[in-house]
Amino acid sequence: MRAAEPGDAAVLVALAGDVTGEPEGWLLTDSAWRSVADERRYLRALRRHPHGAVFVAEIDGVVVGRLSVSRDPHPASGHVADIGLMVARGQRRTGVGTALMRAAEEWARTARVTKLELHVFPHNTPAIALYEKLGYAREGHRRAHYRRPDGSLLDAVLMAKFVAP
Description:
Aminopeptidase; 165 residues; alpha+beta; 4 helices; single chain
């Protein structure tokens, strides 16, 4: 587990492309996650931005997971941060997701964030089980919240966890 570096941009874009291309529909994007140049700029900007972070999981020098965490920009909810997680197909259920989620919790404590939240598709039962195992609770169900590239709409389950300072 480590903070993502701008040099990780190409492998992170490839990881997102792989996960997006899975038939289960774990991740939605239109045609591409971001360009490598956009991802590199984003990772550079995070170095100067204390309100967010990206962590990667590496196994034998290969990036197999990515977690982004970003503080809510509204002044009344600055104690809340949103999480986005993706893990390579062959590394799921091996502890990679758990380790990345723990990294987010450590970041939250340092950043004085007391609540972490995320969206997960209702059909992603393995991810829901992981989040529940880590202490996340369902806080809501957002109907027709995401649009797939084909125009169909997907629901999202809102889950959250309070993190002790």
